Amino acid sequence: MAQLPWQFWIDVGGTFTDCMAKKPNGELLRHKLLSSGATKGQLGMGCTQERLVDSQRQNDPPQFWDNATLALLNDEGDVNQETTVDRFDNSTGSFAIVDSLSTPPQPGTRYELRHAYDAPVLAIRYLLGLATHETPPPVLLRLGTTRGTNALLTRTGANTALVVTHGFGDVLRIGYQDRPRLFDLAIKKRVPLTDNVIEIAERIASAGEILIPLDESKVKQQLVELKEQGIGSLAICLMHADLNPEHELVIEHLAREVGFAEISRSSEVSPLVKMVARGETTLVDAYLNPVLRSYFTKLQEQLPGSTLRLMTSSGGLTSAASFRGCQSVLSGPAGGVVGYTRAAELVGYSKAIGFDMGGTSTDVSRYAGSLELDFESEKAGVRLMTPTLAIETIAAGGGSICWFDGVKLQVGPDSAGADPGPACYGRGGPLTVTDVNLLLGRVIPDHFPFQLDIEAARSRIESIAAQVFVNRAERLTPVELAEGFLKIANTNMAGAIRNVTIAKGVQPEGHLLVAFGGAAAQHACAVADELDITEILHHPDAGILSAYGIGMAEEVRGATQGVYQSLATLEESHLTEFFNRLAKVPIGEFAAEGVLPEDLQLGRSLEVHYTGSDTKLLVPYSSVEQVRQDFEVLHKTRFGYTKPDREIQVASARLNLRLPVSPSPTQVVNSSKGAPEPAQHEAVFAGERLSVDSFQRDHLPQGFLIAGPALITQTHTVVVIEHGWEAEMLEGRELLLRKLAETTPGQSLLAETAKPQAAVELEIFNNLLVGVAERMGHVLRRTAVSVNVKERLDFSCAVFTAEGKLVANAPHVPVHLGAMGVTVRCLLAENPDHQLGDVFISNDPYRGGSHFPDITMVLPVHDEQTGELLFCTACRAHHAEIGGVRPGSMPPNSTSLSQEGVLISNFLYRRDGKVFEEELQELLTSGDYPSRSAAENIADLAAQAAAVERGARGLKKLVRTHGRAKLLLQMKAVQAAAELKVRQVLAGFPVDRYSFTDYLETASGVSVPICVAISINSGKDASQPAAIFDFTGTGPVVSGNLNANPAIVTSAVLYSLRLLVDEDIPLNEGVLDAVEIILPQCLLNPAPGKTVSDSPAVAAGNVETSQRVVDVLLGAFGVAAASQGTMNNVLFGDDNFGYYETLGGGSGATLDHGGADAVQVHMTNTRSTDPEVLERRLPVRLWEMGIRKNSGGTGKHSGGNGMRRKLEFLRPLKLSLITSRRGPHPPFGLEGGGAGECGRNRLIRADGSIEELPGICEREVEAGDMLEIQTPGGGGFGVVPTDWQKVNIDSLD
């Protein structure tokens, strides 16, 4: 019988490579090294000019370092001298070197060894004990690698070109038009993977038929030109190719004829609807395939005869031949997920949360009997439409920087990285979480892989303590400060974990927390306390659990295909045949490796959703009826409702074949007997420096119990057992930590009896309160019914004081900012005798509302014993239909409020647990223009009720945890901190009066001025406003619907101030407390009439006027040129449907940055519908979605370009446009910068006639008519340098 080969399970991470080896006899070996392949060390005594000594190398294999490069480093880590090792003697740890040094190096000199091997091969050779000249035997290598992810992050993939349908060359640059960060003054869109795009004249319709055939000769010529430009890899993505791949197949064939070897075709890579996500997935595949293929070839050359299996992002292994670039992005982290799930299973747990904390980030995932997968996600800055494990990454790790922003302490999001690293690494780095743990005694220097500089860490924290004292007159000791930073880090991580679980409809309580990675064990108890988790598992291989998981992973092959049919129309025989076709390729791949079909396990599932919704659920397939039942149960569990009257659609069929593996134990021999004798170590727990027991993990016998506070040391980490926790050594050498039932002292730094630490508590409570609002948003999105809330995210959630003042919010749409507080205060004032549990709703523009579609729900939260009002929770959601003269409730030509829909001034939604649904139904369906979708309104309001209830529970829990008095005090402190931040930034402007005027064009062509004068005060008197915003001079109320109410102006001011601060400050009423707003009766403050019919219309004020107010404010401050100044509202429909979208344009340039192209700006950030989804849902055809070249204003920094969009109507419809900046007032430039181009709307009739459309209008369109919209560009900033100036600037440089 042939001997089994050695197996190696290796995870190549960004910094470290983790390796486990399984010998032919089953014994397991472990090794960890740097992913760079470098081995670092420090020279010891006895070095000469010809011979260097490091006794730590005595454990290395004989002759292992022969012919290696040895570099001596200076204190900064730079190379001083370099030589080659002639002979390595492991008996003494000495290196005989080829070139003699000029002087013998001093003991402690740092050095670095390098072989010509990549890290995995170096690890394999090390564990095999091979000398340099020896060839390794054939091995089985299971590998996870960040090689693909690193190439994405550093943009070092292959020279790739994208081939797309004509009119869609910019589709991936535009994406879904939302900006990545809501409050960046200078919008930074992600860098595209390629600038090489060719458009092909072809078109396939939304049902799969060919509209425009392919001209093969022309396509071939285009491909030849690409090849001549040096393009090496090709990505092909054509409209609707998932339905009909014919044109993509032809292009692939032509490309191979031309000489392209690397080709990724979207209909093969991800044959599913959504051109943007499928296109980006295909581009990623083409971009990474050559890089990965080259890497795997090199590995196989260094390991002749070996078998290579690669870890995919979905948690399964595949062959090198089958591995694709788009499967590589989570290759490394996937091993950790498989590892912790197997570890949890082995000790009897079926529900677990993975807590993988490394140097720069923390990965969080959940397990409930099966691996959770995302089928569309964003990872490493790219959209992927391929199965990936549901891993959420938090910017918090051991290297997260601890700092003081002048008001409060913060941890992260920036990291010190590996270079310079934390302060204690001795290379001039900043204070980090690792330093804090070291100062608190939770990192033991003797167990660290290299010497630590504790004095450097102490110096950094003392410097921050001094900053806190200067800025806040608060004296904190280094220990208090360190504990504060630790608490902030733990609270942040716990909040992120809670968000991840609640977004999926589950609570973290009841899960096992599995802590792994280098830093997790130091934080696990504290994080679990925050989450109410009572059990933690720490695996013996927690430091290299990704490698362990790769060893435990199954080999998997899968296939996916779009179905796009009603579940009710599918026959069992058709589905069986469909799955049989899908199985052919993966079965063939396994057969080529010698695996028989009977050895495989088959999984079949359908991705299903309700008609009109894009929220899909994966349901195992056994029969059509069972899929229907399982889907409804799962939908009810996940989202809280079902839609019995709504048809169920099958989006795709997914098949996977698995080659099972038997879990093997970690085979750590437990030879320990009896109670071990602990060492004593000084560490800080709950503010006290204690001498605590410190145990070596290897010495702990099975069943041994350790009560906290205590430490357990092992290679690469320290397990911290906090007060109130107990650890038990299990049979498999796992540590199981349990929360003790009885109350123990010192569990929280924030107990009311603790010494107040304002700088610490401020950041913690801000994050806790924001977390409450964020989780309200997760519940609202999860339980909402409408596309507008669930998918476009047109909502915001917030927490308020008992007086109705904003404390914390989780905004998705900036126009909601600052406005909800007015509504909350109005409802409280009008309902002074409200009862415990009452819930109210309002959409009244004269009670803090923005326009009728935005409905605000408010829940006053009381002390359940005394009945005293403590807080309010509220959320505002845009209801796509609320009545009015036009479907979509955004009539372009409304002249009174009554024409815009149903008014809800002050409606009691719930009392004593009863929802007044009948009364609400009557209200929504009454009046001259009732809601056309009352049932959907009611369903979304139920979701809003779930959200505010979730917020109330979160606040009550904070009261129980931290005390009512402390929470109320900290709410005021958080508001005060926001006010202070705004005052600080306004103090940076010279005391002066800054004014600006721009003009808004009405539907009748009248130009209405919007004026602001901003008076900056000295800021020395905190009782006076730091700035006064005076809108005197703004034009009068207009007859159309561009009137905006004061709540919108307040939102615009708050948003603009947040842009100026340019930090993640608490966004609350404190921002507005720093300033005063003067708003006379005008366009921005229309007086209500006696009735709804007498009141001015405001529908467009929310979407158009708000944008112009922000432009004016930023223009007055002189910080940004005008952005497009409109939301480009497009509405069309008939008696059966209504569709509403807003279109992005150019953003304005700033002092330091150019504007961004084709992006949502300022007061909105809603997503656009994917082109393919748009066509399959609606009777339209999109012919162009591109960037409007040269529409941004010129300048030293150019304005962003607008967007071009051509839409053909396929049947008679009603069209409405609410767009501005169509002339005569283009987006202005600043400091000599040019204006952006105005927008343009054209209706091209089927007969060829063209009508130039005004900005605000209504039209009846026929089949074949085409709407062309060109959105405005942004203004430029600064004068364009002349050629002479450029030459002189260059010479100065």
TrEMBL record:
It is an enzyme of class 6 (ligase). GO terms for molecular function: 5-oxoprolinase (ATP-hydrolyzing) activity; ligase activity. It holds the Pfam family Hydant_A_N. Keywords: Ligase. Residues 759-1278 form the Hydantoinase B/oxoprolinase domain. GO terms for cellular component: cytosol. Coiled coil: none annotated. Residues 117-258 form the Hydantoinase/oxoprolinase N-terminal domain. Belongs to the oxoprolinase family. This is Acetophenone carboxylase gamma subunit. The lineage of its organism: Bacteria, Pseudomonadati, Planctomycetota, Planctomycetia, Pirellulales. The gene is apc3.
